[in-house]
Write the structure tokens for this entry.
Amino acid sequence: MIGELTNHLWQSTLFAVAAGLLAAALRKNRAQVRFWLWLSASAKFFLPFALLMGFGSHMQWTPARKIATQIAAPAVSYAMEQIAQPFAATLPLAPTTRATGDWIPIAMLGVWACGFGAVAVMRFRSWRRIRAAVNSSTLVDIHLPDNLEVRASPGLLEPGVVGVLRPVLLLPAGIEDRLTPPQLEAVLAHELCHVRRRDNLFAAIHMIVEAVFWFHPLVWWIGARLVEERERACDEEVLSQGSEPYVYAEGILNVCKLYVESPLACVSGVTGSDLKKRIEAIMTNRIVLRLNFARKATLAAAATAALAVPIVLGMLNAPRVRAQAPAAGTPKFEVASIRPGCADLGGGGVMTKTGGRPVQSPGRLNRCNTVAGFIGDAYLNFADGLSDRTRLMRLSGPSPSGGPAWIRSDMYQIIAKAEGTPSQEMMRGPMMQVLLAERFKLQVHRESREVPVYVMTVAKGGAKLQPFQEGSCTPVDRTKGPVPLPATGPQGCMFQYGNRKGANLVLDAQGTNLTDFGHLLAFGFDRPVIDKTGIAGKFDFHLEFTPDESTPKFLGGTDRDGGPPSPAAAASDPVGPSIMTAIQQLGLKLEPAKGPKELLVIDRLERPTAN
């Protein structure tokens, strides 16, 4: 959150500097042009480039020459988490440092709230003064264009336009006796100019910017420039209407001598900005240049770039629609049969009731699953034809989203024969992608969405983790495909979740970092688990807990003998803590939050013809 705010602030600052350079280059042109430049710099504080990039990310664009070579990337959620926390592996923090750092955002929020409140209180007090003047005013029989209501108020407040949606011209009582008719006419023309330009609305918008970003000096400087240019723009318009410069300047000076300036920028008066510069500009009555074609084109190009560049960046970084054609060299099935239902599996298609897995012949595929299950295997679990990676993908990867309801209810049996002896992972992954595209007319794309997540942090008191004993097992990098294990000596480190011990579930992970441990935990939850502990290194984990409502995604398990837990076993073993309590015993905690997750979205799907 702090990083996003920092990015927004420096981007807005850079935008304001660019607006200032353009305003300086156009100093001999109309003040109205410079006013709009400064107003755009103010509005930029309300419009983060991230919003435009997010909009662009939904406008997917893929060069035609790349379509034929794209295949779904497997480690999607894993990569997203690495982007979300790029410093976890390189900047390890001690638990005590992390606990102290938790107070920094809270303290910053408290300081911001104090500043925001102070600005809001000052503005409210000034507004109460204006409202008191309006409430004590009386209607004046002066007919002005646009049916503008004119009221006279006792006191020494200068003439000004009050209100945003239904503006009222508030004049000090007796002003017609203190100014000559030509002077009063010029002052009224100035105020009418504010009404037509809707200066009160724009000033109110910037006042909100000042209240929210009160800590940024550039915001207040932009506010002063807005007032300066709006007053000069009105001066230029009054003079263009035929008012004498001397009469107009004298009228402004008399108002300054007799009355006090409006306390709010959103109550447009006549004495704002640097009075000396304004009088000099009025008296010289120089001819202001209108924008020529070259300068109009420059401004148009700058405005277009400010909007288009973030959108284009979002489009370039948007998840691409994955190709339905295989990459060069991807093997295909020679023949494939697709039948509804799960008859005649031949002991090969699904996990048996006792937990045993089917034995598949080399180069043969015989599986029964829902279409959603086939898509999950093809594009997520086995997308790259590897096996070791699939464990992490099952735990943290996205599941297919969209499509008709029957893809999650109707079962299909696929019996296929491949040329040669490709691995089961290759047949269930890349080769299945081709089959789904040809026979089910499948088209998919990926998109990132904000979803509920758990953030894993260090609990109060610090982490209580068991360090990994080097040599006790061979660590396996589950993000780089199969790793050959030694024929003798320590075997691969355990990484499993779901075995039963009586009534309890067991989670074991050896030689595992906290990021992968979070992936393993995600297997038991309805949301991803993102490591934010800042702790590096490898550890051994062993959790025993009783499943409850916090583990809704658990799919079942086996006891120590390989079968479902019997009532006698469940009764003989003590009931363990909940998974949340078991995690807290490690000195860790899970907190609900929002985070990005990339989903596989189904765009098109048809029922296949049975054969």
